[in-house]
Amino acid sequence: MSEQPTTVSTVALGIARIEWVPELHDEGLSAAVDVVRREVEAALVAHPRVEALVAPEDELAQRVATWSGLRREGVMRGVTVDGETVDRIVYARLATDAPAHEPDGFRALLNSFLPRKRAISQMLIRDSDARVLLCQLTYKQDWDLPGGVVEVGESPQLAVAREVEEELGLELEAGALLLTDWLPPWGGWDDALCLVFDGGTHETAILERVVKQTREIRAAEFCTPEQVEKRCADFTARRVRAALDQLGRGGGAASAYTESGI
Fold first, then answer.
1. Residue 104 sits in a domain of what CATH number?
2. What residues form DSSP beta bridges with 147?
3. In what residue span(s) does the Nudix hydrolase domain sit (predicted)?
4. Are 158 and 235 in contact (CB under 8 A)?
5. pLDDT of 19-37, one tens digit each?
6. pLDDT digits (tens, 9 = 90+) for 81-109
7. Distance CA 193, CA 151 (A)
């Protein structure tokens, strides 16, 4: 190889950026990784952070970055490269990161690029007339079951109880898991798993205890099956039906699985 295969430059205080020529890949993955890893380790002597910006379509460069010990951090959008506006995947390693050859470091490396799926927890709450509690939300037209997104590292079962308390002011324990519903990508969202937990049967007067989080909740009402069909998006209505069907079969003995409620 006639030219220097890698370059390391300081882009900000304490931050070095490493780049390598595409021809380095011709040496094979293992050889390319060895070169880049050595340069990263050398740069970390003088800089607390070393990063690389890799084109999303360059899968080989992504593998070189990963196995050189650089963790994937996300996508930087709208970067100007050679006068062109492009996206770049950001990989980085800190001087304080555990080395990739150690178990903790290797797990952290894998965790940085393996797929992550969004989880949503919802609660199926009924009244003595077999109606279902629905919420009218401020950020969309259709109604939905109470609940929300599970935080990183949070139990889905605890998450739905937290969401119900935050949104409605109700302290209800989440019971058995009734349904796992896979939601395909839709309307700008990536795909997700929606977990529906049994919230039990309560007197209709429980609505008198509701304290709405006005930023998200317009109204909360117990709804008949006909109202569920009318007020909810079609996939939400299917999810409610599937959860009720599972409850009718005995509930948490074994939860059901659906895709978009089917």
1. 3.40.630.30
2. 122
3. 115-245
4. no
5. 999 999 888 999 999 999 9
6. 889 999 999 999 999 999 988 999 999 99
7. 13
